[in-house]
Amino acid sequence: MATNAPTRLYSYFRSSCSYRVRIALGLKGVPFEIVPVHLLKDGGQQHADGYRAKNPMEQVPLLEIEHEPGVVVQLTQSVAILEYLEERFPKPALLPGCAYLRARVRKCVEIVNSGIQPLQNLATMAEVKRLGGDAVAFARQANERGLDALEAEAVDAGGKYMIGDEPTLADVCLVPQLYSARRFKADMARYPRLVEIDARLAEMEGFAQAHPDRQPDSE
Ligand SMILES: N[C@@H](CCC(=O)N[C@@H](CS)C(=O)NCC(=O)O)C(=O)O
């Protein structure tokens, strides 16, 4: 489905939530421009008035897309964006046809989206530090706990990818989370199945082009 107005993703190269959306756009073949929002420079560009007006949560990603001819909309919350893209651009499908498998995919998405990422977010880590805690150890532990659950799920599901033999939203969320886990020096030896799936996904262009190192704002 071609759009006239450019699709723009407000993104930070290292942001795992932005990375999820970059993967989905790439897999679905939706051309887009990156609008970099640096989460550290200038005290965090996500806190600037202009950006806060677009997203009061002061977070990336934000997707600007022509929803219908002449109507450009702005969407935030990566999982809502992923679901929107899935409905709007159904091919290739990133949710399985079976309700049970869809629930399993969404379970993995939630483990990442609400069980891991919010605990390692910049604002959370700053607060842990302010309270005198070890923010990196806190983030590492959150990653390891969630990845333990995902490893068990992947082994149980027994497919080539996280759930089944085709990439799904579970993989779209897994890959950026593993990138973050490695940054926090999580013990990756605990996750042989996830590491194997990650390597397989890395060979797909939709995943490869979304990697933080390949972004225009990469440092
Ligand atoms: N639930 C949101 C979370 C977004 C989020 O936490 N974004 C992070 C980057 S991955 C962010 O912008 N952090 C900025 C901050 O904490 O100041 C989503 O899925 O989009």
Short description:
The protein has 10 helices and 4 strands.
In the predicted model, the low-confidence regions spanning at least 5 consecutive residues are: none
Strand order of the largest sheet: 2-1-3-4
Q: What structural class is derived from the secondary structure elements?
A: alpha+beta
SS element count, helices: 10
User: What's the CATH C level of the largest domain?
Assistant: Mainly Alpha
Provide the gyration radius in Å.
17 Å
Q: Note the gap between the termini.
A: 33 Å
* Rounded average pLDDT: 97
Number of domains: 2
Helix residue percentage: 40-55%
Per CATH, which architecture of the largest domain?
Up-down Bundle
DSSP strand count: 4
Describe the protein's architecture and organization:
By secondary structure, this protein is α+β, with helices and mostly antiparallel strands. The protein has two domains: 93 residues, Glutaredoxin (3-Layer(aba) Sandwich), CATH 3.40.30; 106 residues, Glutathione S-transferase Yfyf (Class Pi), Chain A, domain 2, CATH 1.20.1050. It is 50% helix and 10% strand. The chain contains ten helices and four strands; from the N terminus they run E-H-E-H-E-E-H-H-H-H-H-H-H-H. A four-stranded mixed sheet has the order 2-1-3-4. 34% of the residues are buried. The mean pLDDT is 97. Bound molecules: glutathione (GSH). Glutathione binds next to helix 1, helix 3 and helix 6.
